[in-house]
Each structure stands twice: as structure tokens, then as C-alpha cells.
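[job 4471] stage=fold_predict status=RUNNING
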Amino acid sequence: ASVGIALLLSRGASEIGCSALQTTPPRGPRQNAIAAPAVRMPNANANHDGASPKKSAIVLIDPVTDWRQVVRAGLDADHDVITVQMPDVALPEKFRTFLPDEAALRDAGVAHALSSRHRDVFSIARELQVLVGRCDLRIACVVPLSEVAVEISDAVASCLGLPHNPMGSMTARRDKGLMKGAVREAGLRVAEHARVGTEEGLRAAVTELSLAYPVVVKTPSGMSTTDVHICNDEKEASDALASIVGGTGPDGRTVDMALLEEYIGGTEFAINLMAFDDANAGSGDAGSRLLVTDMWKYEKTERARYDSAEICNPADHPDLVSYARDVARAVGIRYGAAHVELKARQDGDGRYVDPVMIEVGARLSGGRKSTMAQAAIGDWDPFASLIESHCGGNCQRRIPQSVKFLTPKQFVRHIFLPIDEGGTVKEIRLQAPTLATLHSSAVIVKAGDVVEETTDIVSCAGFVWLVGEREQVEKDTNEILSSFSLILEDKD
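[job 4471] inference complete, writing C-alpha cells
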């Protein structure tokens, strides 16, 4: 069948033993794998009298963001791990470099790897139920590990009778226009916006909304700053519109309308939260506790590219934290992570005020932010918390109800390494291994690659993460920036 989901195995289905390692043939950039175990379906979780307890499992949809850490947390909690990948989603090539292949999934401990086609929720749920019955498993939760997975994970969890965010607000958690509508309906400030598909519609919307240039033109269901254009005049806006409408968006779908937005000035922040079903958290409703786990302030270059992100103490920004919580509630995040991006202006006293949402994701933050927050905070595991939250559990016992946010004990900086000019890479120079505060680094490009100038996060040459005392991080930042260079082949 050309539509559906396949559990790709090394032997025929009638011969499969659930403890056997199952392998899959290559399927382009997204290869599938197998390795760890367990799920549950609504009518298959109850044990029969005298039967031994079923093995618990978690399902990870589109394992991309911090997937190794989430797999490890699942195994540490004695869950088997099942992954669902989507190899036919037409992601841009630069996104595909982040996708794990079969060997990586197997080595990490994944027990069963499923391959979804055409985002077919029915087939995913059915195959999980078949797997549950065959291997005597009980699925505890379904977790999204990418922006593409957000809509699918809630739908699959709903089909399986598992905790999930409200289906009525599912589109508001993915479509940036519907997202802004939901947040505005909650009484919160958002940028003026409109859907446009033609130059005439663009001009009419600019007039109707009384917008002044610059404006933003973007793909409504984009991610990682891809297909986001800051346009200084009508020609730039028209060119951005033409590049989006009729093309394939970052999530692999054909885009029929672009989103025009008011440009919001100020400083950009990201606030990450985790939603918990804590019975004593006020109303007692699911997800009524929204714990702020970490907060980041972004610095950008004059060309509006990301330069760095540094961790903040949420206690210093009460207005922004309160706004982020309200945004997460407005789009229905009751289980799992929330990643709220906003802008705020600095008043005369140096405080950041008047927050305005850029977007919100019902998922972990990218860019290793959870891993860095764990290093900075200490006694907290974001990946175990993510699983607990999607299982409908309470917050980790060591975090009292009175705690509204976590406080970093160390300073963290995430440095973006841009590509300033397109061409063929001859050499990459970066002096990092001996730095006192170096936590990790990743260079995405290599000698021989043909690269283009950086326009978004995923088109950077690489990244460096520093953790330690602020003074030393500042010194090491200067070392990184002074040592990094991307040398290109001479052009004819």
C-alpha cells in the first residue's frame, strides 16, 4: 500500500519475536531502526486475571530534538521505547542532517522503529495496537520530538486513549496565524497579522492593518526561523510572498497562503515550560501547573541573524514569565513542553516589559537548550520530566508546588557560527577543545561542502555551548569568536 505505516522487520511478520532486533532497509535520508520496547492501547492495558503485568512503553514521534536524552530517560524509567519516523515528509535538506538513522536509533536502545507515511494517524495508531498485542506491551504516553510531530502526537495519543492536549486547539499549536488568534482571544497582545496569497492581497492587508514597513512575511507552519522574511519595502514583501506561496514549506506541505505580520521590535526571549497534572495546583485541571524551567535572551546581528543566546533568571522577568504562561494556556498546552518565543522592550529602569508573542511550540526547545538548562540548574532532569508530563503524572517530587520557576546556578551561552558568504568550503578553523567552560560544540559543514550565506538557525556553520561562571564564559566567548573562520575555495 502507498499509504499507511510499516513496521519494517528483518523477518516475516509471522516469525517476529518481540525481543529480536529488527532492522530496516535504507529509505533515503530518514532511515528506520529498531531497538527498545513498549506501548499501550486503550483496551489492551488492563491485565487479565492471573496475567503478569504488561511492560510499559513510550512512543516518540519524529525523534529529532534531544532524542538520545529522551530515549535514555525512558529506559532509565524502565520503559521500552518505540519511535515513529516520517521518511516521506518532504523536509528541506538542511533539516535532514539532524535525523537519526537506523544504527543510531538501535545503538541508543530503541526497541521498535515504525515508519509512517503521509502522516496517517489511523495507521500509526493501528500499528501500535498490533505491536502492543504481539509483544504484550502497555503504552504510557506519546511524545513529540519535533515541530512536525506536534499535531500527530496529540492525535495518536487521542486514538489510544492516552493523555493529550485538547484536539480543538491542535491547529493553534502549529499554524502561526491560528496561534495568534487563540492568544488574542485570551486577551493577550499579539502582532497584527493576515493571510495573503497575492500581491494585491498583500497591499490590501498592509493598508487594512495600518502596517508600516518593515513587515514580516512567513510560512504559517514554519519552524527554526526558516521561510521567515523581514521585508523593508513592498518589493521585498512581494518577493518573499512569491518564494513561499505555491512552494513546499519547512514541514513538507504545499503552502497556499503566507502570513503577513506586523514587525515587533525589541529584544527576543524564549521561555520554556513544562505542564503537569498536579492535583493541588489550583483548579485541579490537567496541566494546571506550568513550571517555567529555563529562559533565554537572544542577541542578533545587524543583519537580524542569531548571534548568541544566554540563559536568564526567570525571577528577573516576572512580566515575561506571566505572559508566557498565559500563552501556553491559550493554545491548550496541558501536557508536555511549551516553548514560548516573544519580544519585549526595555523601559527606563532596564526592565523588559510589554511582551508580544512571536510563536509557541508544544515541544522541547531546540538548540540543546534543555541539555544546557539541565547543566545550569543541576538537580533537575528535563527529559524525565517530559515523559512524566505526557504520562499525565505530577511534577518531580523534589520540586515543591510553591516553586513557579527553576533558577540557573551557572551561566550558559549558546554561540551561533554563521556563514557570511556562499561558496565551497576549503577549511573550518575553530579553537574550542581547551576552553574551560566548553560544554559541547557542533560543526555542521565540512570541507568540500557547497554552502550559502546563513539565513536561519539551521543554515549556520555550527554552534558552541559554554557553561560556567559568567566572567569565564565571556572570556571563552571571545576566544571562540576570534578563532572561528570558514575558508572558502577561490572562485573562478
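[job 4471] summary: The first strand starts at residue 4 and ends at 7.
[job 4471] exit 0
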